[in-house]
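Hi support team,

I submitted a single chain yesterday and got back a structure, but I'm not sure I'm reading the token output correctly. Could someone confirm the output below corresponds to the sequence I sent? I've pasted both exactly as they appear in my results page.

Thanks,
R.
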Amino acid sequence: MGSGKSVAGAPVAGLAGASFDELDLMVEDEAAMEISDIFGARGEGPFAALRDRMVEALFEARRRRREMSPLRVQGDGAIRDVPEEVLRLWSA
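Hi R., thanks for writing in. Yes, this is the structure output for that exact sequence:
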């Protein structure tokens, strides 16, 4: 967090003709708390599970609408626990 992904991601997505979804904000909205609070109250495992569910929902919604996959910008560790079915969506 705090490396500038959100600042750089939106303009890069625009240049690529892709959408840009702020995954951290999606997670915070779903949990009704900030990421630091999720880690403090629940730990990394539940945060990662929530993040992965949000990624899966995002890609599934885009697949249903036949939209281009979003430009994905993420922090460390976000790719290691992504379910296989989500990885298949990325390559679809």
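A quick pointer for reading it: The mean pLDDT is 75. Let us know if anything else looks off.

Best,
Support desk
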